[in-house]
């Protein structure tokens, strides 16, 4: 951009400026930010972040200044170049896999190679036979082969059994014939497939002949199976005639990603294309050989969901960091009850209407953190049990918990980001918020990896099963916290507890668990005793899953504070307990009727919760800036004028508008009498000229 | 785009296709769609829509196919060209003002000329003196002068009194000196100002000298006043040296609009620049002459807010149209309780988890409609009362009602659009939803024209005043429905009503009004008896405004159905009553605790509401497609593959991806070993090359 030397250079924001205000805010609290960051994120994580950050900050390719102005094809190309550069840096600087992921996270683009690293390699590794792995893995790891994961179709997303793509075994040639019988069989949404990948894992219905060859051949469907298929020429990147593949076009977010479509027309692949680590087809007899251990695959999906809780916490922490810093700086309206000589307008974060939107979300970042950690530990324990002793006992619990938390936590964060954005008023709508791309991308999360409504059925199914076991066994063994809780509820004589949630943190946890148990028994009764249709209960199941997952968040938060002996200061511990109570009680307030109906908390006690929530917000308010500082999110990642660590909000907003905005560089004639349409000559022009 | 002749041409979606399904859906109901549309929208509106639509559909400039792919500068230029074309068409075809607005609405771009037509001309017309109007109006109406409205600043939005731009009167030269003392005084966000306008209305603090000239001159601040200022040369479009102006850069939405910034450095304008229809400065004495009738200006702001209810209804109707049509077509998962030979998967709109998100929103479109109509009538009545007899009696009620409804209805629609989007799963995240731009643009509404939290104070202030009047007067005159309601509450002996909301529609209305009155008295007590600080009550005020506005929506809906004698069929009336009950009871369900606490409805009755809501959804379900058809939103405006009238969802999604996507036309090398960044050569390249 043109350097501009004009009178704006001498102007400063009206006093007090953002830097002064944030310094004052930081002086109000003695939370030891660096120690607390290390406690939350580990020193290893922070060192890695610092190290990778320095590399990216010095490479102009990762400058985020103008990416929001690009035409979609250029936006994709920029991300492709960034993906290449990160991979090159990995080799050059000897980065680990974790370093690579840190670089991708800081770059903050959904990289066009993402599905190659995140799904393609993992799938071949986990579902390929030993021979397949030996053949493919070196090519995959060297990125000679770039792959995508082609499961979802135009007509089918969540319901994998409904996929239409067929893989028909031809015993004569010993090939599979991939064929899309309808338009709706087109693979759709598959990331990295639109332009980048040269191979895919195509998930297709495996059809084996049950009668002799010929036009009347009958086939038996063995359900969806994965096939590794080359879709483009390694040199020209063009597909063969029997394949149509491309990018599906612009979306709500994910501008940088080439989500694709893919159709097969009687496309033949060799016997070895079917990933044969579990089930396989005998190439000589055409016989289907069953998988030995289908539950391991199931464990992988669960891993993705478990990780989503930690991602949700970071996404929300970004938005809350921006909101807390900016709203501390922003002032608007003088307090009408203040003396008329009051000089300053009220700090926006001091308005209750702003606090009650932002501070519970600040508390939520910590709630998500502790449950994310607990999920990681549960996943590791389960994995070890399975691998070491073939013990699948905790897998069902892990699967249920991760499904429920995925649904709840991605909803909390998606809605929370938007709540932060709206609380910031006008500037929250501007590109300087740094939340535009975050929001647009994050809004995919409530849908992907299991729709947030649909997957709550898995939680309900699990809890109903647990109640059934309890109801049918005289002396059932309670091994998990969930089982213990259901048992406690069942054997409790008094079903009205009237817990003292205002005075007692244990009572808060008990209230959440009681509600979860109450709704579990109610769901069991409706489904198994009254025999109501499953689909008629989906709202009950959704509410049950929500209640159960909230109780897990509350319980993990509580347990972590009870057992954490490594907190950096007594004040930090005190503030964390306030955050625990704020999270739990503000959640309870929004769900008050259920807490009353289930007998956990009286109406009088619930009426008093609001005042307690406001008192907690008053107590937490002075620590707000230091608390968000503790998440240690670098300015480079925030990419936000409003959320800058140094508080130079207005200076940066003006800089972005006045010196970094390409729209101010182009020429055109605004006179309505002229009919010209001054086109860009690149992709923009390319698009416009096709009008 | 390249014509593609390949095997996809022969493919159809799996049966039943969308066209068949929508035909079946439409056959399930006998609502007379065309008659109902005319009843809702008037024949005049529908004729106008048809007439303008034909013109735009035949002009390639208005083709929306590729606009989402453009670089921001090209997106702006496209909208500028469209704005010019619409203005040219107006002249050529002799369009009325209403025709022009219909064209702009169907084009669906926020046009760069929008502030000229929407605010600039109106302001000069309403606030200019006769002489100023005679001078400026011909230039404005011929678009010789293109203007913007420059009020909001970098540091101040809602609080107009806090604006920093100064207009200092220089008695020697008889000029005003416009000056921005700080960076935060920069005008900011002002639409059409970034590149398009050559003039602005700049709102500045009027400073008149109170002591003699010289460096020690003291000034008195008369508050914000409007000045008409040329900011760019009429030929070169360049600003003078004492002005910095430009576009603020990309935002959450409004890509096509050049929201701007503007700084003045001791910029001099003549005495005549200050709009002098109300207050003015005597050029000879420097004396300030007060406005005669400040409330008329106040009425104009109210008009904008009143219109937002009708806009909210149309925005929501668009999203609901798309959702109802697509979710009728989409099928996913077989019913697990169905016999195993069931061929078809369940229609997504038949899942309760989808119905309870979408059908109450469908009901809400009608609730918004009747209150939008009522607001229009109240506005007209108030305007006539003021103009004809100087009677300002209903202005305060209009102002309060429009503020509360603005806050509630824009929240309902902004959240409702996103709810529709998420309910549509994966394809809801795609560009084919037609909701991306709608959502991005509409999300500004909760902030503009008064922040949705902040303006609820105006409702509370009004209701507290009404309670005070009632409390202080023995025999108060109740003229408005609000006053009657408060009076009824005050004089009611029994404060626990236990209304029968399941059986009786009047009881529903009464429950909403009772809750509103209860919260009004509670707010009055806290503020005026207990003398609590105003700011500490902001959450109470927000909840009061919400409750009051919900009661207005319910009451207007009920009154309209009671008095409508022109409904096209008995079945339509029946379905509308169901929609009324669904809107009211689903709202009641989400706010159940307040209905219980205020004594309006018992807990037992509230527990039974859920079952009633589900029954109502079952009754409304067969009419859903015809009901959205009745909003008569043309495909051209929907711009949605998912929401097409003909149901060809999958065909259109594939067409968009395979034949209309510029990313599939560009070339590049995905190999990570290459370091190339293949740039577009237009604005995209321009931006990238500056990295």
From TrEMBL, chains A, B:
Domain Acyl-coenzyme A oxidase N-terminal: 34-146
A Pfam family annotated for this UniProt entry: Acyl-CoA_ox_N
Protein localization: Peroxisome
Cofactor(s) this protein cannot do without: FAD
GO MF, any single term: fatty acid binding
Domain of life, per lineage: Eukaryota
GO process terms (BP): fatty acid beta-oxidation using acyl-CoA oxidase; lipid homeostasis
InterPro entries: ACOX_C_alpha1 (IPR055060), Acyl-CoA_ox_N (IPR029320), Acyl-CoA_Oxase/DH_mid-dom_sf (IPR046373), Acyl-CoA_oxidase (IPR012258), Acyl-CoA_oxidase_C (IPR002655), AcylCo_DH-like_C (IPR036250), AcylCoA_DH/ox_N_sf (IPR037069), AcylCoA_DH/oxidase_NM_dom_sf (IPR009100)
Record keywords, A-Z: FAD, Fatty acid metabolism, Flavoprotein, Lipid metabolism, Oxidoreductase, Peroxisome
Domain spans labelled Acyl-CoA oxidase C-alpha1: 298-464
Annotated Gene Ontology cellular component terms: peroxisome
Coiled coil ranges: none
Active site: 449
Keyword Flavoprotein: yes
UniProt pathway annotation: Lipid metabolism; peroxisomal fatty acid beta-oxidation
Acyl-CoA oxidase C-terminal domain location: 506-673
Catalytic reaction(s) noted: a 2,3-saturated acyl-CoA + O2 = a (2E)-enoyl-CoA + H2O2
Residues annotated for FAD binding in this entry: 152, 191
Main location: other
Family of the protein in this entry: Belongs to the acyl-CoA oxidase family.
Protein name according to UniProt: Acyl-coenzyme A oxidase
Organism of origin: Helicocarpus griseus UAMH5409
